[in-house]
Amino acid sequence: MSELILGPWPWYISGFLIALVMFLLLMMGDRFGMSSNLRTLCTICGAGKKTEFFSFDWKSQKWNLMVMIGAVIGGFIGAHFLSNNTGVNISADTIQRLQEIGINSSETSYLPTEIFGMFTVKNILLLAVGGFMVGFGARYAGGCTSGHAISGLSNLQLPSLIAVIGFFVGGLFMIHVLFPFIF
Amino acid sequence: MKNLAYISIGVLFGVTMYKSEAASWFRIYEMFNFQAFHMYGIIGVAVVLGVIITQIIKKYNIKTFFGVPIVFDDKEKSFKRYFWGGIIFGLGWALAGACPGPMFTLVGAGFYSLLIVIAFAILGTYVYGVLKDKLPH
User: Fold this and answer.
1) pTM for this one?
2) So where does this one cross the membrane (chain B) (predicted)?
3) From CA A34, how far away is CA A114, in angstroms rounded?
4) Does the beta-carbon distance from B46 to A22 stay under 8 Å?
5) Is A15 among the domain residues?
C-alpha cells in the first residue's frame, strides 16, 4: 500500500488529478493557467508604471498566487513526506541516451545533478536562457502547458492546439538539434 | 477561507506534479525522445477528462460553488503568436525541463537552482510586455 503512494504515481492517476485541479478552479469561478502568475509578479515588482501590459490591479490575480504558493507547498510535501527514493523511473533507453551526453544521475536524483546541482557558468546560463524562453514564450503564446494544453484543448480551442504544436516543435528542436551542441 | 481553498488546490497540483514526475527534467527529456508513454498518458487523460468536464458544464449550465454561471471565453483567433510563442516556450521547456507550474513546485521540493529559472522567466515575461506591440501576433 505504501509503495502505491511513495513510489511514482502512474499516468492515469496523475492525469485524473490534473483534470480535477482544472475542475475545482472552474468551480471556484477561475481558470487553470500558471504562467499568468509570472505577469502578476512583474506587476507587483512595479512593471505597470512604465508598461501598459503590466498595468492592472494585481489583487484580482491574488487567487492564482495562492495556487502558486500551494504548488510550492505541494512540492515540499511530495518530496519530504510522500517519496521513499529520489530517483526518477524513466525508461532504460532514456537512461542510456543520457549517459551518452554525460548525465548519469537519473537513478539517484529527481533532477540531473550535472545541470541543477553545480553552479558552473554554463549551467547558470542554461537555466537562465531556459527560464527566459519559458517566460517570454508563454506570454507571447498567451499561455503555457496548463493554460493551452490542458484548459485550452479541453475547450477545443484551435489556438491552443497551434500553441501545443509549437511547444513540441520547439522542444523537439532543442533536444534533437541543439542538445548535441550544448552537451 | 477562499485563500485556503486556492492554496489547497495548489497543494493538490504541486503534489501531483512532483509525484507524477512531470516536474522532472528527466521526464521532459524522455517525452521529447518518445521513449515512454508516461507524459503522453498524463496529458492525454487530463485532456480527455477535461473535454468531458467542459462539455458537461456547458450542456447542463453548471454553476460555480458560489452560484455564478461558468463562462468559457474563446481564445482570440490568430496563428503567429501561438505558433512562434509556442516554439519559444517549447525551446525553454526542453532546456530547463520545467514549465511555469513545476518550477515553483521544485523550489518547494528543495531545488533552489530553480530560483534562477523563475527569475529569468519573470524577466522573459517582462521583456515580452515591453516588446508586445512590436511583435507579430
Assistant:
1) 0.96
2) 38-57, 82-103, 109-131
3) 27
4) yes
5) yes
